[in-house]
Every structure is written in structure tokens, then in C-alpha cells.
Backbone:
């Protein structure tokens, strides 16, 4: 079992659907505050179509503007195709390429413009690019706990896809509760089986959640052996298709509270720097 905790802060996920344009300068200032905290990874942008995600159109400029000389936090950007991957690998300070791979056919087409079958060779080429440029690939299993389209979903389908993707060389997976509907039993089953079957691989949880359900999801994953968690400050962001408007990303402050209780907060995590970044977020977002 992986003993150390990997905390991933995802301002990209928080920002991508935010309706008010946030300037490049403001993004850089906010990210610099987050880089002081001690997160393992900062999910800070995406090389995707600016028409599809206007808020991420300046990702290249943001990456260029970040000073990573005094941080151990690694940068991750999302890519949805080979063109995006080529852009991402050109930046020395980007360590991870994140690829959204949905086991829901409908969502994969909506999200990437490609079917699942068409996505496989794209993912293979992205993996090859990552390896060539000494980057690591993170595959997000979108709609990993169900979907609203009636596409088939069972824990066994997840297990089968992990087996196939692992055979392609993928070693880091993030199970994404895109709609915030994951059941505790499924969380327990999947992380328990996957971690036991692939002890040298990394399995993370990218949960979307109702404010009242965050604890049961984190607790189920953690006790099943998951030690990689994504979050956003105050749970900003999430999937617009979620049927409950209160469903957002996993609040980072809740993750910190949970891990503190278990004495599992990473040793390099600077609580005061997090408080500063938390306060800084109020200059970026309008909270209800």
C-alpha cells in the first residue's frame, strides 16, 4: 500500500467552467500562491480547443509565467488529443499529462469528439509522447461510477478497462466520480481490488460530491487504500451535467481536515500557506 499521500489541487477544474473571465495575470498570481502550499501536483491548465473551454485558452501563457524554482509541486495539464499533448510536452516544467478517458461512450464523444475505439490509438500516441519527453501520463476514468446516458456501467467494466490500459503502459489512474453519484460500496470494491491487483500502480480519487457526502466518499476510498486525492478550494467547479446544483469538486479544506485527523497530512504541507491561498481564492471567485 502506498503510504504517502498525494494531494492534487485542481484550479483548472475550478476555473474551466467559471463564467467570468479570469485574466492570465490573476491566474498566475493565484497559482503562485498554490505552489507555496506543498501540494504534490497542481492541475493548472488544459491544451484543448479554446472554443470548447475559453477559460483555458491562455494555458501556454500561464505556464510560461509560473516560477517553479522554489517549489516541489509538479504541474499537470489536461490534453484531449495529440496536438494538445505536443504542446504540453514542449514545456519543461510540466511533469504530468492528464487524459480524460470515459468508459461512457456518449460522454467520451461529448468530451473529446472521439468514440472510445477512436480514443485508444490517440491515447497510445500521447503515452509515447509522454515517455519520449520524460513526462508521466495520468488517465482519468471519467464517468467512473456511472453515467446519465444509460451506457453500461459496472465495477467489472472499470476493472476490465484498467487491465487493458495498464497493458498499454498506463500506470497512474484517477477514478472520476463525474456526476457525484458514487456509492460507498462501489468505491470500496474498486479501490480494494485495483490496489491489491496492481500494487505498483497508482490509483487516485477525483470525486465530485454534495457537501454532505464528502466524508463518506473520502473515508471509503482512504480505508480501501487510496492515497491520491484531487480537490479544489471550497469545492469550486464540477460537472455541469450533475443533476444537483450543490454538487462540486471535493473541497480541499475537507481533505486537509480528514487527513489531519489521521495524521496523514504530508509533512511538507504548509497550513499557513494554504490559508493564504484559500483567502486568495476569494479574489478569483465569487462564492455564494
Residues:
Amino acid at each position: 500500500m502506498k503510504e504517502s499521500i498525494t494531494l492534487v489541487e485542481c484550479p483548472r477544474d475550478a476555473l474551466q467552467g467559471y463564467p467570468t473571465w479570469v485574466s492570465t495575470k490573476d491566474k498566475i498570481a493565484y497559482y503562485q500562491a498554490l505552489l507555496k502550499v506543498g501540494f504534490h501536483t497542481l492541475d493548472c491548465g488544459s491544451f484543448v480547443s479554446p472554443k470548447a473551454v475559453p477559460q483555458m485558452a491562455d494555458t501556454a501563457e500561464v505556464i510560461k509565467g509560473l516560477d517553479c524554482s522554489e517549489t516541489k509541486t509538479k504541474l499537470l495539464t489536461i490534453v484531449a488529443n495529440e496536438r494538445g499533448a505536443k504542446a504540453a510536452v514542449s514545456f519543461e516544467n510540466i511533469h504530468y499529462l492528464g487524459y480524460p478517458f470515459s468508459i461512457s461512450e456518449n460522454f467520451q464523444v461529448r468530451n473529446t469528439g472521439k468514440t472510445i475505439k477512436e480514443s485508444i490509438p490517440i491515447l497510445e500516441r500521447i503515452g509515447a509522447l509522454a515517455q519520449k519527453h520524460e513526462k508521466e501520463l495520468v488517465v482519468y476514468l471519467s464517468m467512473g461510477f456511472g453515467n446519465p446516458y444509460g451506457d453500461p456501467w459496472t465495477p467489472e467494466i472499470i476493472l476490465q478497462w484498467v487491465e487493458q490500459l495498464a497493458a498499454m503502459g498506463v500506470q497512474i489512474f484517477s477514478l472520476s466520480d463525474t456526476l457525484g453519484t458514487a456509492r460507498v460500496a462501489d468505491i470500496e470494491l474498486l479501490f480494494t481490488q485495483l490496489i491489491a491487483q496492481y500494487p505498483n500502480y497508482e490509483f487516485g480519487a477525483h470525486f465530485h460530491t454534495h457537501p454532505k457526502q464528502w466524508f463518506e466518499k473520502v473515508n471509503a476510498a482512504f480505508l480501501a487504500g487510496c492515497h491520491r486525492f484531487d480537490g479544489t478550494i471550497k469545492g469550486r467547479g464540477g460537472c455541469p451535467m450533475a443533476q444537483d446544483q450543490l454538487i462540486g469538486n471535493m473541497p480541499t479544506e475537507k481533505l486537509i481536515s480528514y487527513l489531519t485527523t489521521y495524521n496523514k497530512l504530508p509533512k511538507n504541507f504548509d497550513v499557513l500557506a494554504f490559508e493564504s491561498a484559500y483567502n486568495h481564492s476569494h479574489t478569483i471567485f465569487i462564492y455564494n
